Amino acid sequence: VIERSGIGFPLLIEGVKQKEGAWFRYVSPDYFESLRIPVRAGREFTSADRGEQPRTVIVNEAFAREHFGRPDVVGRRLTFQSLTDLEIVGVVGNVRVSSEQGVPPQAGEELAQLYFPNHTLQGVRPVGLVRTSGDPWAIAQGVRSALTAIDPNLVVFDVQPLTDRVARSTVTSRFYAMVSNGFAWLAILLAAIGQYGLLAFSVGIRTREFGILSALGAAPRAILSGVMREGLAVTAVGIALGLGAAFYASRLLKAMLFGITPLDPATFGVVTMTFAAVGAVACYLPALRATRVDPVVALRAE
Hints:
The chain is α+β, with helices and mostly antiparallel strands and about 300 residues long. It has ten helices and nine strands. Strands 1, 2, 3, 4, 5, 6, 7, 8 and 9 form a nine-stranded mixed beta sheet that branches.
């Protein structure tokens, strides 16, 4: 059960006030096991941690690294808001915080977080989590009935699988990604058309040159490779300029990236190979046309 969450101030680490606050959650003892959040050090909460005011706290790896500079922080103490002399009893793995909760997506996974034992549900809307190995909807009614049996006045609403909730929290970003992907493919198509048109025009005005080369005994393969080299040189310059611009522009798009870094090598590699392949095809067709110039027809045309 998650009682409530948010960001709070002030935060004092062993008496020293920190410049920033921290994201916090109140959770039940089975919270980490239910969500498969690994415990890196120490322990989870137990029923013994409950009380009128929490005296124990669990931090994530990002919190330990940011405020202590090392992962072995079990036993250290801190003060958070009105909660004083809190003992750290465990360190858990990092989890991403939903962008719906006002956290930048790129910071969600590395966000320093505090977890407190859930000590009261009065006046606060709780969120219940149930793990199942089958279809979540198959047990939804059973869970409602069980909760109603405990307290007939308890209202259960907004029941949905966690996967649906995650998908809903990223729908805006996925839409932007889809639109950006469409514009990217359109840009590739326009670049290919432009490169083809440029080389086709170049081949057209050099018809006499290719005719003379053929008349002097130049092999079609030599003409083909010459035109291809010129076209691919232009492609290489364009790719180099594009990668340079992308290197700086990626920092501005950081907030829209999920699961990859702004300078992800795989993404840059795939894009480079795609543009190289498109450029090669756009160069090959005009180059092939150059090898088919009839020397007699070319010289007569001049």
